[in-house]
């Protein structure tokens, strides 16, 4: 679980604004095409709030059991 929290913290410092927006730029999608609120989700993971992280992801994703897997 510590590795997931490290990754969540790293995401918060990446410097890409509005990464959850799923905007098409030059024919490529930036951010989450499902419009998941990745920064919010990663912050909850970083703080160890696993149930809230799942619930946050479930609001925008029909398959949170797949998209919430951390490899």
List the SSEs and their pairings.
Blueprint lengths: L1 H11 L10 E3 L2 E3 L7 H9 L3 H11 L3 H4 L4
Antiparallel strand pairs: 1-2
Helix pairs in contact: 1-2, 2-3
The residue ranges in which pLDDT falls below 50 over 5 or more consecutive positions are none
- Rg from Cα: 12 Å
Order of helices and strands: HEEHHH
Number of strands: 2
Total of helices: 4
Going across the major beta sheet, what is the strand order? 1-2
Q: What global shape is seen?
A: globular
Organism: human gut metagenome
Protein name: Glutamate synthase [NADPH] small chain
GO molecular function, one term: iron-sulfur cluster binding
Pfam families: Fer4_20
Structure commentary:
With about 70 residues, this protein is mainly alpha-helical. It has one domain (about 1-65). It has 4 helices and 2 strands; from the N terminus they run αββααα. It has helices at about 1-10, 40-45, 50-60, 65; strands at about 25, 30. Strands 1-2 form a two-stranded antiparallel ribbon. A hairpin with a 2-residue loop joins strand 1 (about 25) and strand 2 (about 30). GO terms for molecular function: iron-sulfur cluster binding. InterPro entries: DPD_II, Glutamate_Synthase, Helical_ferredxn.
Task: Give a summary of the structure in a few sentences.
The protein has 71 residues and is mainly alpha-helical.
Give me some keywords for this one:
single chain; 71 residues; mainly alpha; two-stranded antiparallel ribbon; 2 strands; 49% helix; 8% strand; Glutamate_Synthase
